[in-house]
Write a structure and sequence with these properties.
Elements: H1 9-37, H2 43-55, E1 58-59, H3 60-67, H4 71-83, E2 87-91, E3 99-103
Antiparallel strand pairs: 1-3, 2-3
Helix pairs in contact: 2-3, 2-4, 3-4
Amino acid sequence: MLTHYKESPSEIATLDAFIKLTRASNTLHHQLSRSLAEYNLTESLFGVLEALYYLGPLNQRSLGEKILKSGGNITMVIVNLEEQGWVTKIKDQKDKRAHTTYFRTI
């Protein structure tokens, strides 16, 4: 790729690779978002569903760690999934403040 950047050939190659990877990532993100929108899902919603499907029931903290989202964000994601009928939340018997989220099988 032609560039006005005046550094070593290895730095120019690194910059070129970074730009190509960023463009590829953006293209994949766009395609994924369009595909998920058909099911009224976002990447965060899909990430939680995927984690629950493969790992089994998890609490909110574990889900947040798995999909790299904050506690406040994961709460809204789970509420949205519950409203759409994808998951079920059950109170933890040992700690009434905590909930375990289950993937709802149809």
